[in-house]
């Protein structure tokens, strides 16, 4: 297993390098540093202020090859960006000048306070409801469960946000409508409403998907063999159907790992949670290209790590799978 993990980590290197090249071309070639400086400093900024802003962030260097001879041929923006990404020194924000690594560390905790409870509660409810619908399949409860799932997933998340803030925060005054306070029980009050909205907005699609997975498993030959041997309905569901459906569940669950850490854009922005999702929205609206580029790189690493964890979980869940 150790050799397999090492090979997978080595495979990640060219992929991450490709991500760095693409993001560098998109953010540094399409938009010139002069334009980025004017956006940050305003149209009234002097040329001297623009040059100082570019020098502080390394935008005064040539893009790919330094033909001036000062600092060597590799003293370029591209080499600087690759060096920063390789050493996880993500540079500084174009808008504020604050180190990006410090901003990411500050935003991880609020994002995890939202995404982890929403993920755990949503997974438990969706799997439980899907198993219930499979247990009473082709009944009136199953039909209405599918109809409600389609209805829930058809409503945009922004509708849940607006209605939830009006009902629970403005009218009933149970929870705060905006802000975040990571101190004791206050954290629960601030995250309860957004977590509930996240669970509800994703429940319909997850229930339909898990129900389809479990229905495919319950029609297999080994299920009929277990039923012929006298296994009860609950034993068939939890011992056979759920266990053999783990491969599909692992794929869906682990693939959400980057979104757990990177946060959710809509929820964090509307509820004023200072997480990574809210930080990404502000970076886009303020044209903070350095911060957007760092988010893309960080998200790519999380996605590749999630794929590795998925394969490892495959081998742990199914003895027929070997890591080679």
CATH architecture of the largest domain: Orthogonal Bundle
Biggest sheet record: none
Number of domains: 2
Series of secondary-structure elements, N-terminal to C-terminal: HHHHHHHHHHHHHHH
CATH class division of the largest domain? Mainly Alpha
Indicate the structural class.
Answer: mainly alpha
CATH superfamily of the largest domain: MetI-like
Poorly predicted ranges: none
Q: Please tell me the overall pLDDT.
A: 78
What does this structure look like?
This protein folds into 2 domains: 2-86, no CATH class; 101-317, Orthogonal Bundle (MetI-like fold), CATH 1.10.3720.10. It is 74% helix and 0% strand. It has helices at 2-29, 33-41, 47-57, 77-86, 100-135, 140-154, 157-171, 185-218, 221-228, 233-244, 246-254, 257-262, 265-271, 276-285, 289-317. Helix 11 (246-254) runs antiparallel to helix 15 and helix 13 crosses helix 14. The radius of gyration is 25 Å and the shape is flat. The mean pLDDT is 78.
Give a quick rundown of the structure.
With 324 residues, this protein is mostly helical. It has 2 domains: 2-86, no CATH class; 101-317, MetI-like (MetI-like fold, Orthogonal Bundle). It has helices at residues 2-29, 33-41, 47-57, 77-86, 100-135, 140-154, 157-171, 185-218, 221-228, 233-244, 246-254, 257-262, 265-271, 276-285, 289-317.
Task: Please give the structural blueprint.
Blueprint: H1 2-29, H2 33-41, H3 47-57, H4 77-86, H5 100-135, H6 140-154, H7 157-171, H8 185-218, H9 221-228, H10 233-244, H11 246-254, H12 257-262, H13 265-271, H14 276-285, H15 289-317
Helix pairs in contact: 1-4, 1-15, 2-3, 5-8, 6-8, 7-8, 9-10, 11-15, 13-14, 14-15
